[in-house]
Amino acid sequence: MTAYQRDVKTRQTDVNPVITVRPEDPLEAAASGDERHRILDAAGRLLERGFHVFACDHPDSTRCACGRSCDAKQRGKHPAGRWKELATNSLVTLGSQMTGLRNVAVACGPSALVVIDEDIPGALEAYASEAGEEIPNTFRTETGKGTHFYFSAPEERLGNGLGQLRGRGIDVRGAGGYVIAPGSRHQSGRIYEASDWKRPVAQLPTWLEGALRASPMPNSGLIRADVGTAARAEYGGDLWRLVLQVLTVDMETESRHGRLHWAACRAAEDIAAGYYDERQARQALAAAGVDVGLDERDARDYVRRALRWGRDHMGAVA
Question: CA gyration radius for the chain?
């Protein structure tokens, strides 16, 4: 009996069951080996670990779950609604979200996780080697193009900031972010595969936590003291780190607009979590955009649009 079947059987004995499973119900977990059954069974394994999950887009569905027209590279990642409200530790509640074909994602904050996402295979191992450290033996998922390393989050909140891992082909998801779960399908057609379902989640090692909390090393010489110091003093570390990401863009190899867009999207997640307000984010990020040579009106408009985009696609990572 799968985890899904056990949960449904238990819930059917309730006076007020959350969901009734009928023979024609597309979520019925008959041992048919179909896509939905496989994804739900994988989700059940994650829920047994205490993770919070929710439904999101599947690349084979007719239309993206977010309700927008998304191109092929974006398919399979967007939440099927407001993901922070959808995140649940009940497989039956998850089943009620799975209208049509859906992938599943793990909400990192309520799951007490920090997930390191390698976009370039071997990137985290390379950093660990440079630091004279080793990656703990922890639960991990092979994705469409790399690996997700799962770690238990420290007591002091860690968000999605890259710290000194910036520019290494690595992304990070902590409080305010999510990752696509094993069992789901990548837009390339590959399945997100857990390397070992029995492997426990290791505590985030001290050396890696330190790297994530550290400010990135400046690489462009463009940091202007009044902008950086004011943001750090007035808005605190979370917004300061995003400002610093904009100020340290390497204009010979990177897009200033691209870096500003990334920072504003991360700010949208922090704003939703209540760490600072939108006015503060607009002011600080637009000032940073001006500092790296953007027109003031252009910088303000771009930050405003990027914050809106960030709200609509909050927390997404491949």
Answer: 21
pLDDT tens, residue order, the chain (318 aa): 444 444 444 443 333 333 333 333 333 333 234 788 889 999 999 999 999 999 999 998 888 887 777 766 678 888 998 898 999 999 899 989 988 889 999 999 999 999 999 878 888 998 898 889 999 999 999 987 789 999 999 988 888 777 778 777 788 899 888 999 999 999 888 999 999 999 999 999 999 999 888 755 444 333 444 444 544 555 556 788 788 888 877 665 667 888 888 888 888 888 887 777 888 888 888 888 887 777 788 888 889 988 888 777 665 544
Q: Is 42 helix (H, G, I), strand (E, B) or coil?
A: helix
Total-model pTM: 0.64
- 316: closest CA among 124, 190, 187, 218? 187
DSSP per position, 18-37: S----TT-TT---S---HHH
130 to each of 18, 126, 165, 207, how far by Cα in Å? 51, 6, 12, 12
Taking residue 68's Cβ as centre, other Cβ atoms within 10 Å add up to 12
Give alpha helix (H) positions in the chain. Answer: 3-11, 35-48, 83-86, 91-97, 123-130, 206-213, 225-235, 237-247, 256-273, 278-291, 296-312
Bridge partner list, 179: 106
Cα gap 156→39, rounded to integer Å: 32
Please name the helix (run of DSSP H) or strand (run of DSSP E) that holds residue 145, with its range, or none: none
Neighbours of 78 (CB within 10 A): 22
